[in-house]
Amino acid sequence: MSDETRPSRTAAVIPAAGRGVRLGPGAPKALRALNGTPMLIHAVRAMAASRSVSLVVVVAPPDEASAAEVKTLLADHALPGGTPSGSWGRTDFVVVPGGETRQESVKLGLDALPPGIDVVLVHDAARPLVPVDTVDGVIEAVREGAPAVVPALLLADTVKQVEARTDGGPELVVATPERARLRAVQTPQGFDRATLVRAHETVTDNVTDDASMVEQLGEPVVVVPGHEEAFKVTRPLDLVLAEAVLARRRANDGF
Ligand code: CTP
Ligand code: MG
User: Fold this and answer.
1) Protein residue with its CA nearest to atom 23 in ligand 1
2) % of residues, the chain, pLDDT over 70
3) Is the terminal CB of the chain with fewer CB neighbours within 10 Å at N or C?
4) Count of Cβ atoms closer than 10 Å to residue 239 Cβ
5) d(CA 126, CA 137)
């Protein structure tokens, strides 16, 4: 097939190996329930909701018990129509153990991608409620030629740059970046596979998202609209908000 006619195949890597320290003591964050269903399952469903996503790679907490629990959960929540342990409807999934940092976990997920995938989404398990339109918007922008795409929102708060201190003393404000030029960046972030793999092989600095590694390669990163419901469950209050969003969806579905 020529390049023009070859359909692009999309996979989603879901880093879910974090402990969730800021959420407080308990199970690994991705395995905590929202309205009775583990956050990770919500996140996998959010990716599988896109017709373009043919494979989901879940990067599980590295201990054997958690990895086994993730595999069981995925099988238990599999949609009718798929094989019991390997797919949800038209979306296949695989589980791999994660690493010490988010960056390592994503790399381990990328290593598990089969040939034939050319668009990769990286999506935090901690963003379980991202709407499918946001996912599709990211994929579309990559298919239209952007090597890296991030969904983002305008900020509500003014942001100050400070001289950071860890001793509890007052921090000195250094600068106030113009709010209109700042964006709060979410996931899924979308990439041309080869570009993301090269970024992970080249950039060794500690980063907090994947797109910043592509920026360091000097490749363009573009922004598409994010969504309020794609917020990251980080602190205890975020669990309250997530359950409220699910309750609102359920109420709206009923009418
Ligand atoms: N993550 C991962 N591997 C790690 C650390 C984080 O796969 N070693 C994943 C988390 O599971 C999460 C995403 O990266 O889905 C975003 O990270 P964050 O929200 O910071 O989650 P945690 O690291 O689990 O939370 P905390 O920083 O509060 O411990
Ligand atoms: Mg973290």
Assistant:
1) 18
2) 93
3) C
4) 18
5) 20
Q: What is the DSSP letter of 30?
A: G
Which of 243, 253, 252, 229 has its CA nearest to residue 34?
Answer: 243
98 C-alpha vs ligand 1 centroid, how far in Å? 10
Two structure tokens written together for 240: 């309250």
Name the residue ranges covered by the structural domains of the chain: 9-151+184-253
Cβ(189)–Cβ(150) below 8 Å: yes
Q: Which helix (H) or strand (E) holds 71?
A: helix 64-76
Q: Write out the DSSP string of 1-17.
A: --TTTSPP-EEEEEE--
Task: Express each pLDDT in 107-143 by its tens digit.
Answer: 999 999 999 999 999 999 999 999 999 999 999 999 9
Q: What is the pTM of this model?
A: 0.94
In this predicted structure, what is the pLDDT of residue 80?
Answer: 53
Closest ligand to C-alpha of residue 17 is 1
* Domain spanning 9-151+184-253: CATH 3.90.550.10: yes
The larger pLDDT score, comparing residue 205 to residue 131, is at 131
Of the candidates 17, 48, 45, 14, the residue with the CA atom closest to the CA atom of residue 31: 17
